[in-house]
């Protein structure tokens, strides 16, 4: 697998960045806070679904609504290039550039993560986030932390990585599957028992089915015999029924003719009565016609008079409206006349107010000038308050900065000892790693001291003997030089002194070694040195801010001086405006005493502007009043013509009342009189029809008498009775036949259902055998998982240990060392005959050992040939940083490595350098 590039849009500190990667070691460099770690976090989020302790909102750049990461990589599965894009709101988009199409994977858990596992080379079911956090991209500062924990804590970490608990989990999960299989077998047994119980009545049901078949055959034979009898009776019954129908038809026809004859006679009687009534009505109409005509004449005259009455009322109404308008406008004329008189008064008042207006204008100009000055002074006063407040704040800031600089000055001496404490820590770590050798050396020195002391004592004794011999020789041989004897004595004594001095020096070394071989004391001193180193590192970072604070102090002091000069200028401006309030009060009092003549003049001037309009309106209304009065006079003359209208209306109303009775009587008889001639004709026609119907009745009676002579009603009743009896029997048998057939069908369905139950029983029996085999297989699988877990885990540890051992020698570049990763996940390093635990290794050796095991985990478990290192050289001095960088560069088993560094350590060992710059 190979990651080609990553594109970040609004991801954490990056607004829009694109980074390209190459095979081998890729060094990501830049200052602190530039967003180097964010690049690895973006790859982890897109390819491994790992977000760490962040929330989704933490990934979005400040001020943006969403974040997006696009990673282009070469698949470990098919060697093709793919593009994976992840958006905080829209989710995943996977694109195949070679096919130029988007792959249909959007659901993270069900589609995207399985696809990523396949193309990353990870086994199904692997937690990609856990894999990244523990092996591929261990967070900054925790690379060796897992290996320094206790055995119990290491087990919790690496059991999860090696999936040890998965075998136990599967074993436990299969228990529920076992119970489920046993329950399935029991369920099939119960199902088979139920089927057997249902099949208990099958034989009895089959006997009933055969009995019903026999009954149906007998009924069908009887029905055929009865249908033959019915056919014979039907022929005779049909002939008799034809005679019966003919007799009934003639009887019905006779009744109809008789009814028509009776109706015709009733119609003639009614026509005769109506003709008599019409003749009487015609006589009454002839007598009342004069009254009818006189009433109609009076009605027509009244209609004409009513129209004249309407015209009179319209003229009267118009006269009243004109008179009302005349009265209303008279009031308006009076109001307009009063307004015109007021305009003359207003003109005089404006002339009187002219001097006061000039005075008011002069005072308002002065007042406006003073108010502008007052506003300017208010601004100066506000600016002065702000300046004083800013002066206080700057004084506080200067004081705080001076205190902070004093504190930082005090840290300088302590930070100067940082290198010395680092050397002390390294020396203690070396002593701890060599404690066994020191103990062996102490034992050998102690033996050497004992031998030296014995040798010194022996040498002292021999020297004393030699000195005594020299004294005897000097006495016996006086010719011997005194200087020679003295020189020999001095040489002997010097030899004894030197031996004593050497033994004393060795004893001092032994005293020093006694402290170096005390492991508990060394660990305590190492812990104290590490704590002191951490404290000094923090103080060093704090001390690094001193130049910036010093610049800030200088800048604040300059600002203080400028602000003081500005404050003095503002105070002098305020002093010049002390008498401004008195001048303002005097002017305001003078203006109040004038009582606003300018305003009153403006009001009067606006009123005078209306004078031409009012005058014009007044003239127009006077002209309109004259026209309205003329219309009223004309209407009065027209109304005089209607003086005789009421008398004429009364005369014609009296004529209507006098002829009203004759008019109403004529109306009541007019319609009946008009029907006289029609009724006379209808009566003659009805009498002719009556004669024809009498002849028809006699003809129908003759035919009926002849038909009754040929008809035997008793025989017809006997045949009909026999027919009904045979048909009833046939219908009874035919009616019972469907129920028998229904019973037969029910029996058949029941038999078929029981046969289906029998088939189900046979299928259930076969299924029971299959489920029993499945239950035995599940029990076998549980046992296999229970026994296979420890063996597979042991095999994993052995493979990782072998791969880690090879990588460790490659990293540390020493072929005579061996690394072992034990079953309790502890790292042991053997060099020659000595074997050291992980805690006893130096810082560089710990980093290389941890790196080797983590890379081996990747090789064995995931078959992934990429890895990420975030600040692996943290808290290392330059020689160790360079040594680790060279070690990582020597790794050839991985196709691509990503290393984040804040210095130039890794730039020296690789050409693939990505420089990340801080965004504004």
Automatic annotation (TrEMBL):
Keywords: Coiled coil. Residues 719-742 are annotated as: Disordered. Gene3D superfamilies: P-loop containing nucleotide triphosphate hydrolases (3.40.50.300). GO terms for biological process: double-strand break repair. GO terms for molecular function: ATP hydrolysis activity. Residues 1-397 form the Endonuclease GajA/Old nuclease/RecF-like AAA domain. It holds the Pfam family AAA_15. Residues 178-315, 363-476 form a coiled coil. Belongs to the SMC family. SbcC subfamily. Heterodimer of SbcC and SbcD. This is Nuclease SbcCD subunit C. It comes from Leptolyngbya iicbica LK.
């Amino acid at each position: 697998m190979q990651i080609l590039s990553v594109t970040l849009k609004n991801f954490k500190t990056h607004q829009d960045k694109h980074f390209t990667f190459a095979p081998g070691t890729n060094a990501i460099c830049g200052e602190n806070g530039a967003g180097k770690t964010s690049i690895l976090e973006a790859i982890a989020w897109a390819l491994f679904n790992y977000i760490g302790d962040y929330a989704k909102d933490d990934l979005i750049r400040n001020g943006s609504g969403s974040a997006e990461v696009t990673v282009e990589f070469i698949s470990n599965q098919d060697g093709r290039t793919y593009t994976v894009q992840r958006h905080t709101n829209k989710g995943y988009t996977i694109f195949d550039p070679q096919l130029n199409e988007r792959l249909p994977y959007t659901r993270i858990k069900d589609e995207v993560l399985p696809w990523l596992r396949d193309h990353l080379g990870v086994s199904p079911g692997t937690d990609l986030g856990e894999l990244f956090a523990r092996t591929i991209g261990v967070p900054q500062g925790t690379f060796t932390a897992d290996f320094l924990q206790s055995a119990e804590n290491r087990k919790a970490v690496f059991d999860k990585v090696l999936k040890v608990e998965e075998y136990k989990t599967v074993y436990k999960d299969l228990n529920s599957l076992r119970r489920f299989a046993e329950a399935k077998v029991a369920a099939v047994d119960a199902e088979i028992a139920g089927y057997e119980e249902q099949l208990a009545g099958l034989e009895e049901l089959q006997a009933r089915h055969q009995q019903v078949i026999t009954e149906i055959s007998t009924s069908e034979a009887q029905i055929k015999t009865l249908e033959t009898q019915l056919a014979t009776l039907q022929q005779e019954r049909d002939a008799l029924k034809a005679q019966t129908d003919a007799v009934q038809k003639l009887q019905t026809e006779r009744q109809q003719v008789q009814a028509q004859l009776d109706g015709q006679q009733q119609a003639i009687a009614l026509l005769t009565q109506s003709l008599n009534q019409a003749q009487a009505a015609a006589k009454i109409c002839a007598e009342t016609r004069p009254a009818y005509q006189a009433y109609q004449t009076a009605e027509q005259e009244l209609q004409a008079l009513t129209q004249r009455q309407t015209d009179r009322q319209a003229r009267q109404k118009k006269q009243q409206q004109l008179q009302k308008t005349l009265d209303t406008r008279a009031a308006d004329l009076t109001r307009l006349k009063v307004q015109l008189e007021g305009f003359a008064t207003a003109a005089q008042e404006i002339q009187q107010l002219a001097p006061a207006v000039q005075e008011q204008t002069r005072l308002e100009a002065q007042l406006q000038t003073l108010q502008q000055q007052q506003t300017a002074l208010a601004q100066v006063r506000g600016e002065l308050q702000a300046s004083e407040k800013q002066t206080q704040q700057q004084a506080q800031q200067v004081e705080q900065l001076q205190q902070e600089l004093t504190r930082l000055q005090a840290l300088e001496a302590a930070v100067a000892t940082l290198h010395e404490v680092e050397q002390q820590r390294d020396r203690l770590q070396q002593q701890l790693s060599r404690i066994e050798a020191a103990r062996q050396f102490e034992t050998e020195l102690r033996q050497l001291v004992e031998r030296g002391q014995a040798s010194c004592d022996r040498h002292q004794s021999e020297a004393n003997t030699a000195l005594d011999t020299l004294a005897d020789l000097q006495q016996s041989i006086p010719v011997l030089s005194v200087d020679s004897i003295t020189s020999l004595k001095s040489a002997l004594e010097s030899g004894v002194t030197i031996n004593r001095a050497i033994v004393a020096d060795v004893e001092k070394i032994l005293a020093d070694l006694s402290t170096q071989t005390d492991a508990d004391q060394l660990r305590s001193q190492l812990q104290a040195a590490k704590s002191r180193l951490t404290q000094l590192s923090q103080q060093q970072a704090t001390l690094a801010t001193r130049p910036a604070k010093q610049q800030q102090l200088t800048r604040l002091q300059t600002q203080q001086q400028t602000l003081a000069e500005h404050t003095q200028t503002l105070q002098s401006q305020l002093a010049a405006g002390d008498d401004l309030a008195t001048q303002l009060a005097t002017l305001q009092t003078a203006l109040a005493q004038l009582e606003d003549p300018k305003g009153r003049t403006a009001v009067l001037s606006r009123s005078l502007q209306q004078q031409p309009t009012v005058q014009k309106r007044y003239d127009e209304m006077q002209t309109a009043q004259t026209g309205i009065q003329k219309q009223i006079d004309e209407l009065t003359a027209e109304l005089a013509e209607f003086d005789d209208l009421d008398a004429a209306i009364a005369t014609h109303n009296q004529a209507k009342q006098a002829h009203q009775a004759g008019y109403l009587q004529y109306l009541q008889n007019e319609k009946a009189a008009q029907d006289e001639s029609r009724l006379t004709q209808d009566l003659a026609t009805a009498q002719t029809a009556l004669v024809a119907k009498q002849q028809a009745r006699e003809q129908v009676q003759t035919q009926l008498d002849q038909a009754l002579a040929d008809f035997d009603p008793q025989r017809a009743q006997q045949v009909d009775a026999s027919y009904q009896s045979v048909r009833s029997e046939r219908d009874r048998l035919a009616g019972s036949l469907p129920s028998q057939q229904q019973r037969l069908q029910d029996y058949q369905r029941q038999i078929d259902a029981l046969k289906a139950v029998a088939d189900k029983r046979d299928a259930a029996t076969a299924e029971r055998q299959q489920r029993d085999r499945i239950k035995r297989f599940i029990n076998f699988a549980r046992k296999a998982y229970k026994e296979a877990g420890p063996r597979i885990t042991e095999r994993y540890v052995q493979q990782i240990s072998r791969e880690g051992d090879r990588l460790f020698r490659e990293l540390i570049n020493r072929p005579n060392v061996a690394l072992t990763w034990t079953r309790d996940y502890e790292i042991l390093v053997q060099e020659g005959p000595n074997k050291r635990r992980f805690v006893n290794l130096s810082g560089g050796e710990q980093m290389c050992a941890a790196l080797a095991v983590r890379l081996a985990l990747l090789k064995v478990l995931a078959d992934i040939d990429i890895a990420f290192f975030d600040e692996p050289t943290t808290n290392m001095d330059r020689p160790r940083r360079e040594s680790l960088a060279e070690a990582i560069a020597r790794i050839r088993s991985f196709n691509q490595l990503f290393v984040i560094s804040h210095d130039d350590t890794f730039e020296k060992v690789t050409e693939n350098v990505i420089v990340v710059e801080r965004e504004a």
